[in-house]
Amino acid sequence: MAFAQSNKYLKIVQPFTAVKAYITPCGIGLGHTGRMLAVADQLKKKNVEIFFSTYGPAYNFVKKNGYFVFNAPGIMWDETDGVVDVGRTVAKAPVTAKKILGHYLLECKRIKKLKPDVLLSDSRYTTLLAASKHKIPAVYVANQIKFVFPEMIFKKEN
Question: By C-alpha distance, which of 37, 38, 44, 53 is closest to 20?
């Protein structure tokens, strides 16, 4: 299984063989985790050691599929009748910011201990930042059109 790494973003510049993957899907719903379980199954066939980190209903879903999984604190938006309630979600911003910082610090500790060869994130931004801090190549998977990292926003053009 060949991945590639570069200093800032994943690019095809220096192939290497991954032996340990840290997979971190968003725990809201099961779609993120379902995608990552399919990836994990393929990596497992290539003898890659798999570790997951997720929360909410996804935690038990990963466990039931036979993978080791760390339980992360949940980050959820507020809903009213199945629809995201932006007002209530924004009102919880200070609490959510504290949870996001907690996620980041927790994942930094786990990455430092596990020393994965690659991190695969499905909509978990804190794990991307933690991987970047520890210089671990990362792949971001999402159904959003575009994901902008803060360093991309502030990058000066020559």
Answer: 44
Non-local (6+) Cβ contacts of 74 within 8 A are 27, 55, 56, 99
User: For the domain bounded by 14-153, which CATH number is listed?
Assistant: 3.40.50.2000
Number of residues written out for the chain: 158
Please report which helix (H) or strand (E) contains residue 130, including its range.
helix 125-133
Distances (CA, A) of 104 to 37, 111, 131: 22, 10, 10
| Whole-number Å distance between alpha carbons of 3 and 66 | 24
- Could you give the dihedral angle defined by the CA atoms of residues 51, 16, 148 and 129, in that order, rounded to the nearest 10 degrees? 50
3-state SS, residue 24: strand
Global pTM?
0.74
Tokens of 53: 């980190």
Query: What are 79-117's pLDDT values in tens digits?
Result: 677 666 667 766 777 777 788 888 899 999 999 999 999
